[in-house]
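Format notes (please read before filing issues)

Several people have asked whether sequences and structure tokens are stored in separate files. They are not. Every record keeps both together, in the order shown below: the sequence lines, then the token lines. Line labels are part of the format and must not be stripped during preprocessing.
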Amino acid sequence: MTCFSGETMTNARIAVLIPCFNEAIAIGKVVADFRACLPGAEVYVCDNNSSDGTALAAAAAGAVVRREGLQGKGHVIRRMFADIEADAYVLAG
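Then the structure lines:
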């Protein structure tokens, strides 16, 4: 992952939103990469009924894990924007 090295928003609350379904193999690296590039941001993973341990892997990597019971990316994205307060959002999708 290439990190942006421009000016930072010092007082801004930045939320990285990662919707996922059955991504246990990759989610740890994705979370770690975002945490490295945006150290002041809070990384949120919204698990959409995964059956492979995605939520556990995301939590182990330092993400705040949320769950959405209604299947589908649209439901997950709506839930994340409704529940998470921030000044700036980064949506990985």
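For reference, the curators noted about this record: The longest helix spans residues 24-37. Strands lie at 14-20, 42-47, 64-67, 88-91.
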